[in-house]
Each structure stands twice: as structure tokens, then as C-alpha cells.
Amino acid sequence: MKLKITDIDNKAAGEVEIDDAVYADIFGREVRKDILARAVNWQLAKRRAGTHKTKEIGDVQGTTKKPYNQKGTGNARQGSLRSPQFRGGATIFGPVPRSHAHDLPKKVRKLALKTALSAKQAEGKLVIWSGADATGRTKDLSAKLDKLGWKSVLVIDGAEVNEKFALAARNIPGVDVLPQQGANVYDILRRDTLVLTKGAVESLVERLK
């Protein structure tokens, strides 16, 4: 299978050839929303700080004295004013600091990345560049992206991101730049257009085949 390569100015810059079986496995899969959802939930769960906390009875400031006598008052018996039934008291079974991360099998993570790439290819929103080259000026890069009509784009480069391109892109809203080892399902799906450099394609094919 031959995929067309363009440059940043949308001019033809050759082709990259991928074995048909490998192409079908990585870029031609059926889009499974359940697999994508599992991968996105797994990624976002790892990002959660988990620092939420409510006060238990040991955390509430106040006296430990019994409010009134056990018997003879006509009221229900009480042992502490810090109990949850009183205003300013403790919270029962409230959240405590914890990790929200959970496991996801490597096979499922790999399948999800292939599915995300296939989804972009099926939508016609996967573009292959000869390289992520730029002058380092945000104004120049922004003008080129506007000319292409891209408002939301993820650019995945090779093992190392082109420094000038990264500098030019970092102040443009809706544009993300990642090295190929940072390619992930969430970032691919959250941007409208996916751009892979030739080096990124070669690395991803080697990584996922």
C-alpha cells in the first residue's frame, strides 16, 4: 500500500510504502468505540489527582465532651457534637485521597492506538508530511495552517520533535506536537486532524506491527 506524502505547503513530496497486511492491521481496522472509550478512560483516570477529601470525625475541631446527660433530657442520646448529624460535624463515607488509576492490558492499549489511527484514516483526516519543518516563527506557521484550514491538529514527529517547529507551534491554540513515542489515543481523538511525519509513520509501523 502506498500512502501519499506532502510537505507543510501541501505540495506532493513522494510516497511511503507499507505492506498491505501491516496497513490493514494499523490503518484499516474497524473502528470500535468500546476499545477507544476504555483507552481514553484509562488515560484520564491516571491523570486525576485524587486529592479530594472530606473531614471524618477525627479531623473535625471541637470538644470531646458529651453534650448532655445520657438520660433524663428527653432528647436522643448523643456522644459528641462532632458527629455527622450536627451542623459542622463530620462527613460519613466521604472521599479520601486515593489513586484513580486502573490497569488496562497491553494488548488492549495497542489495539486502541491502532483503532484511533484507523479512525482518522477512515475519516480522511490523516495526513503524512515529509517532515515537520518551520522557520521557528509562530506567525509563519499559523499562516500556513490557516491556509490548509486546520484549526485543531496534532502533529506527531519522529523520535525527536523538530525544535523550531515545536517553538513555532506552542503558542498556537488547537495545535499539539508530540514525538512518536508519545502518540496516544486521547490526544489523537481530541484533535480534528492528525499529521504524521514520514519518520513517525515508520516508527509507529515498527512499534505496532
Automatic annotation (TrEMBL):
Residues 61-83 have a biased composition (Polar residues). GO terms for cellular component: ribosome. Pfam families: Ribosomal_L4 (PF00573). InterPro entries: Ribosomal_uL4, Ribosomal_uL4-like, Ribosomal_uL4_dom_sf. Keywords: Ribonucleoprotein, Ribosomal protein, RNA-binding, rRNA-binding. Gene3D superfamilies: 3.40.1370.10. The keyword Zinc-finger does not apply. Residues 53-101 are annotated as: Disordered. It comes from the Bacteria. Belongs to the universal ribosomal protein uL4 family. HAMAP family: Ribosomal_uL4_B. Part of the 50S ribosomal subunit. Forms part of the polypeptide exit tunnel. One of the primary rRNA binding proteins, this protein initially binds near the 5'-end of the 23S rRNA. It is important during the early stages of 50S assembly. It makes multiple contacts with different domains of the 23S rRNA in the assembled 50S subunit and ribosome. PANTHER family: 50S RIBOSOMAL PROTEIN L4, LARGE RIBOSOMAL SUBUNIT PROTEIN UL4M. This is Large ribosomal subunit protein uL4. The gene is rplD.
